[in-house]
Amino acid sequence: MPLLNKIITTAFPFIPKSIVGQVAKRYIAGVALSDGIRQVKELNKKTIMATMDLLGEDVKNNFEIEEVKAEILSILQAIEENKLTSNVSLKPTQLGLKIDKELAYRNIKKIVETAKNNGNFVRIDMEDAATTDDTLAIYRRLQSDGLDNTGVVIQAYLHRSEEDVRSLVKSKANIRLCKGIYNESPGIAYKDRHEIRNNYLKLLNIILEGGSYVGIATHDDFLIDHAHAIISKFGLNKDQYEYQMLLGVREKRRDQIVNDGHRIRIYVPFGEQWYAYSSRRLQENPQMAWYITKAIFIRQ
Ligand SMILES: Cc1cc2nc3c(=O)[nH]c(=O)nc-3n(C[C@H](O)[C@H](O)[C@H](O)COP(=O)(O)OP(=O)(O)OC[C@H]3O[C@@H](n4cnc5c(N)ncnc54)[C@H](O)[C@@H]3O)c2cc1C
Fold first, then answer.
1. Is the domain covering 29-273 a CATH 3.30.360.10 domain?
2. Residue 58: which region, alpha, beta or left (left: phi > 0; alpha: psi -120 to 50)?
């Protein structure tokens, strides 16, 4: 990591929120549901699918949890009313996972049931490793309650992921495969980028051998190129997989994937709670230091 990026990463918590907001606005659709809808309409016009995400995580009290649930139900309604090609992604800690697991289950179940009635799908995002067991347990319980319109996320950086994937493909789980974004300890996670990439490709092969549907979530050329080759090797039809990317990241590569005839879904986050998400995106951006410096010195 270049020195300036290292300094900015260390100093990140002290950078004014207004500066972070200015630089990070490309990663979020806006603060209101209408902003998210507008963004999804634009993507759909280009035959790009979406998954809408209400920003926020680790919600602390029952009142806020109820609000989040109501807002996610409104997203599902808006998708229906506007005939958008979009599903919904949610984080279990937004719906109470760290307060009361049973409450979180009931909330997520309500959302997944509503989506099912609309013929829609809910992706359960994966958060830090302290939540992996509980998140997978929620997914499995939804399945056993007859709700098959939902899928999980597997993080290639976790040592445990191979075992999780081998178990999930037995029931043909719908899996989003990503590298993983949280700062996990070397005891449980690969830290070396080559090891993470190798594990990603190993897991992708296991998922496809097992006949599961996969969301290949990455902006990494190395992984995208290898994934293209793996898709050809398995002779997959377009409806057996999709690529996934985040809003505001590598749009040229995104369009190239579409032009090459693959399906792609963009993660479209919106909402008032944009800071934590935007900070993570910025810290992944190799040009972060330059963007922040520019925002500090060239105020618009
Ligand atoms: C649709 C989707 C859903 C996700 N869901 C989850 C989840 O549920 N749980 C979880 O832990 N993680 C999730 N992630 C994040 C993921 O784990 C990675 O942290 C993230 O995708 C970066 O990894 P990468 O594979 O793109 O590789 P990287 O090596 O990080 O990036 C490859 C290249 O893409 C470009 N790039 C990447 N990020 C940025 C950026 N922010 N700005 C500008 N350029 C950038 C750079 O050129 C970089 O060299 C998700 C990612 C996607 C795409």
1. no
2. left
Residue 33 has which token pair?
Answer: 């549901």
Ligand 1 contact via 266 beta carbon (within 6 Å): no
Check: complex ipTM more than 0.90: yes
Q: Give the pair of three-digit tokens for residue 89.
A: 């992604």
CA distance 58 to 68: 11
178 lines ligand 1 (CB under 6 A): yes
- Percent of residues, the chain, with pLDDT higher than 70: 94
Are residues 244 and 265 in contact, defined by beta-carbon separation less than 8 angstroms?
A: yes
Catalytic residue, chosen from 53, 123, 125, 254, is 125
pLDDT at residue 272, rounded to an integer: 87
> How much distance in Å is there from the Cα of 245 to the middle of ligand 1?
7
For residue 91, the ligand 1 atom closest to its alpha carbon is 8
CA distance 98 to 172: 28
Q: Where are the alpha helices (DSSP H) in 12-58?
A: 17-24, 33-45
Is residue 115 pLDDT above 50, yes or no? yes
Using a 6 Å cutoff on CB, does residue 281 contact ligand 1?
yes
Considering the candidates 53, 123, 164, 176, report the single residue annotated as catalytic.
176
**Alpha-carbon gap, residue 97 to 173, rounded angstroms:** 22
So what's the pLDDT on residue 290?
67
CA of 175 to the centre of ligand 1 (A): 16
Task: Share the mean pLDDT of the chain.
Answer: 92
Q: Catalytic: 125?
A: yes
- Residues 253-287 have pLDDT tens digits of 999 999 999 999 999 999 988 888 887 887 777 77
| Cα Rg of the chain, angstroms | 19
Catalytic, 176? Answer yes
Q: Is ligand 1 within 6 A of the CB of residue 89?
A: no
* C-alpha 219 – ligand 1 centre gap (Å): 6
